[in-house]
UniProtKB/TrEMBL annotation:
<keyword id="KW-0055">Arginine biosynthesis</keyword>
<dbReference type="Pfam" id="PF14698">
    <property type="entry name" value="ASL_C2"/>
</dbReference>
<dbReference type="InterPro" id="IPR024083">
    <property type="entry name" value="Fumarase/histidase_N"/>
</dbReference>
<comment type="pathway">
    <text>Amino-acid biosynthesis; L-arginine biosynthesis; L-arginine from L-ornithine and carbamoyl phosphate: step 3/3.</text>
</comment>
<comment type="similarity">
    <text>Belongs to the lyase 1 family. Argininosuccinate lyase subfamily.</text>
</comment>
<dbReference type="InterPro" id="IPR008948">
    <property type="entry name" value="L-Aspartase-like"/>
</dbReference>
<dbReference type="InterPro" id="IPR022761">
    <property type="entry name" value="Fumarate_lyase_N"/>
</dbReference>
<feature type="domain" description="Argininosuccinate lyase C-terminal">
    <location>
        <begin position="366"/>
        <end position="429"/>
    </location>
</feature>
<keyword id="KW-0456">Lyase</keyword>
<dbReference type="GO" id="GO:0004056">
    <property type="term" value="F:argininosuccinate lyase activity"/>
</dbReference>
<dbReference type="InterPro" id="IPR000362">
    <property type="entry name" value="Fumarate_lyase_fam"/>
</dbReference>
<keyword id="KW-0028">Amino-acid biosynthesis</keyword>
<dbReference type="InterPro" id="IPR009049">
    <property type="entry name" value="Argininosuccinate_lyase"/>
</dbReference>
<dbReference type="Pfam" id="PF00206">
    <property type="entry name" value="Lyase_1"/>
</dbReference>
<keyword id="KW-0963">Cytoplasm</keyword>
<dbReference type="InterPro" id="IPR020557">
    <property type="entry name" value="Fumarate_lyase_CS"/>
</dbReference>
<protein>
    <recommendedName>
        <fullName>Argininosuccinate lyase</fullName>
        <ecNumber>4.3.2.1</ecNumber>
    </recommendedName>
</protein>
Length: 454
């Protein structure tokens, strides 16, 4: 059967394969609530423009609300012959209320309709995902508070660098997610613009009140160029980037936790509820959630690249290629939502093994830089101080002696009797008082600041 919505000039039925190839109803059905809301706002503007009587509007509105309820309840048969959610709903409306349903598409095209639906959908999902990112921040923040003063080595190149605290380490992630929220908030401004009234590409000779429609749908403003409005998918690409970057951040936490949970590190333990066993090795407790999250970041990047590539080189305005925007968008949204939820739960249930962290942080090598700073305070230029401490490190490595037990006075006259006082974790952290540095007071103050912010 050929689609009744546009069959006028066609004398042959659409091939089955073409229907299968071109349908989007199998996934864009999830836009139904937004499609109904958009249609009702559009119909109300038609009354104002004298296209519909109030009575006709009421028939259309109640018809659409009934359809929405049926879809809610799972009592709606979607048809691939009707290709997408827009034509499925409109065709059913006309079936239910008769010819008046055929008036709804006046001064509208599926091109501005799909752009409207997708923007409404994105707006809703941005709000949900923003809340979820905040929930993850709260989970991290609680652990940061609990372990504000638990010392742990900070790493560069995955080699022990300098002491920090678990609180400081976790707050680094709170910062990343705050930037993600900023990005989503900013993207929302570009999402929340109404394209309805742009028609297929050139507006319409029937001028509906676009501002009224935008107001009803909660958009901040109307788009200002009909050709741009119906072919713009920037806001989707932007969101896919934002989700991809959240994926990167999640993947980096995952990697930290995988390391922390290994016997080699032993810094943290995940709850049994958030780990899995091995069908063969009875002792195993695997951080699968972290690995799945790390893996899923790949599909988030893939979805972004997929749409960037699909949209590249498209002539203005609408081309069917643009239908390829939805599956990556839906997939990224589904992926990021479950990833955020499971990670928030897992982190809330995580235990940090304070003693293991402390043992690792107590390696005196972590204070080699502080020893150089000590020499600097005694008037030695930093480069020479670095060299002198390097020599002490070499002696320690060679003689397999901890750095804090080397006789430093043999290496340089710049070391005084007080040099050994450098090898105190407590002193080392206490001294790091500049903004952003990991003194315990700073970390606690940051925890308090975030508690007020989130
Ligand atoms: N299913 C289509 C999409 O997602 C709706 C718009 C179709 N417009 C058209 N002119 N064929 O892009």
């Amino acid at each position: 059967m050929t689609n009744g919505m546009w069959k006028g000039r066609f004398s042959k039925a659409t091939a089955d394969l073409v229907q299968q190839y071109g349908e989007s109803i199998s996934y864009d059905w999830r836009l139904y609530k937004h499609d109904v809301a958009g249609s009702i706002a559009h119909a109300r503007a038609q009354v104002k423009a004298g296209i519909l009587t109030q009575d006709e509007f009421e028939q259309i509105e109640s018809g659409l609300r009934d359809i929405e309820k049926d879809i809610d309840a799972g009592n709606f048969d979607f048809s691939i012959e009707l290709e997408d959610i827009h034509m499925n709903i409109e065709s059913e409306l006309t079936k239910r209320i008769g010819a008046v349903g055929g008036k709804l598409h006046t001064a509208r095209s599926r091109n501005d309709q799909v752009a409207t639906d997708t923007r409404l959908y994105c707006r809703e999902e941005i709000d949900t995902i923003t809340t979820q990112v905040k929930e993850l921040q709260v989970a991290l923040l609680k652990k940061a508070e609990q372990y504000a003063d638990a010392v742990i080595p900070g790493y560069t190149h995955l080699q022990r660098g300098q002491p920090v605290t678990v609180g400081h380490h976790l707050l680094a992630y709170v910062e990343m997610f705050a930037r993600d929220i900023d990005r989503l908030t900013d993207a929302r401004k570009r999402v929340n613009v109404s394209p309805l009234g742009s028609g297929a590409l050139a507006g319409s000779t029937i001028n509906l009140d676009r501002q009224q429609i935008a107001d009803e749908l909660g958009f901040d403003r109307v788009t200002t160029n009909s050709m741009d409005a119906i072919s713009d998918r920037d806001y989707i690409m932007e969101l896919l980037f934002d989700f991809a970057l959240i994926g990167t951040h999640l993947s980096r936490i995952s990697e930290d936790l995988i390391l922390w949970c290994s016997s080699e590190f032993g810094f943290a333990t995940l709850s049994d509820a958030h780990t899995t066993g091995s069908s063969l090795m009875p002792q195993k407790k695997n951080p699968d959630v972290c690995e799945i999250t790390r893996g899923k970041s790949g599909r988030l990047y893939g979805n972004l690249v997929s749409l960037l590539t699909a949209a590249k080189g498209l002539p203005l305005t609408y081309n069917r290629d643009l239908q390829e925007d939805k599956e990556p968008l839906f997939d990224s949204i589904d992926t990021i939502k479950i990833a955020l939820a499971v990670n928030a739960e897992m982190i809330a249930d995580m235990t940090v093994n304070i003693e293991e962290c402390k043992a690792a942080a107590s390696d005196p090598m972590l204070l080699a830089t502080d020893l150089a700073d000590y020499l600097v305070k005694n008037g030695v230029p930093f480069r020479s101080a670095h060299e002198l401490v390097g020599q002490a490190v070499a002696v320690a490595v060679e003689s397999k002696t901890p750095l804090d037990q080397i006789d430093l006075t043999k290496i340089s006259e710049h070391y005084g009797a007080d040099a050994s006082a450098v090898f105190s974790l407590e002193t080392a952290l206490k001294a790091r008082t500049n903004p952003g540095a990991p003194s315990i007071e700073n970390v606690k103050a940051e925890v308090a600041r975030w508690k007020n912010t989130i």
